[in-house]
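Q: A reviewer asked whether we had any structural model of the full assembly, not just the individual parts. We don't, so I'm hoping you can provide one. Inputs are below.
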Amino acid sequence: MGKTQITAEPGMPQIIVTREFDAPRDLLFRAHTDPELLAQWLGPRDLTMTVDQYDVRDGGKWRYVSTDAAGNEYGFHGVFHGNPSPDGIVQTFEFEGWPGRVALDTVTLREREGRTLVRSVSSFQSVEDRDGMVASGMERGVRESDERLEELLAKLQAS
Amino acid sequence: MAADQLSLVFGALADPIRRAILTRLTEGDATVAELAAPFRVSQPAISRHLKVLEHAGLISRTRRATARLSHLDAEPLREVTTWLAGYQRFWDESHERLDELLAALQGDRNDKPDRDQAVRAKGTDHG
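A: Here is a predicted structure for the entire assembly that you could use as a starting point for your response.
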């Protein structure tokens, strides 16, 4: 289907992830709020996702744990702010391996001709928090770095 | 790479003149005068840019006779691209799985015959 676009601007404590899906937005909303569905797609295939708690309402808590093949567990938790709806899901996000570095995530779903654009904005407390979170929590699959370096150098030369 | 060094590298890359300097250095080492030549900026201004790049670990400088040469150190660039690549991989893979789930759910809802196929694909595709 679409291509996942990630924007992480220098000096800004934010990450924006956008992606279009071939499905109506009510279904996307279910996939984001029904814990059974969420566990089936969030995270890489070689990690097992266990949703501990997912109380989708204003003030409701959520927590999930990602387990790798070696049995290492990575826990994440937060709280929903406002009643989640297809117009917006607002929640705090904290990696338990890095307590106190809380981010605020806002997910909006926009439907157009049967397709839905999902836009997720994560706002961190500082640029350092953002950079560290990306580096520590999501540090996976880095083999194609040489290719990416070539792409970056090509971009540098074009600009 | 430590988070604060990432910030330094990103900060260094945020300026078009500094990016142009890095591009020039991919062709080989250069003096301040050579680096300043394509721009309408003074040599001291270029020197300030070089200091930022050096602080971020993107270049190193050596003295040869009277000239001071700048040299590209690409390793921090590699680490920056690796940093983003890991995050991109996480979401690419999650979203591929979500595509498959949505297809399976829609097959379910509309009672389409391709539902089992979609579910099977989800179970076997561990690429």
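A: Points you may want to mention in the reply: Chain A has one domain: 5-158. The first strand of chain A starts at residue 5 and ends at 7.
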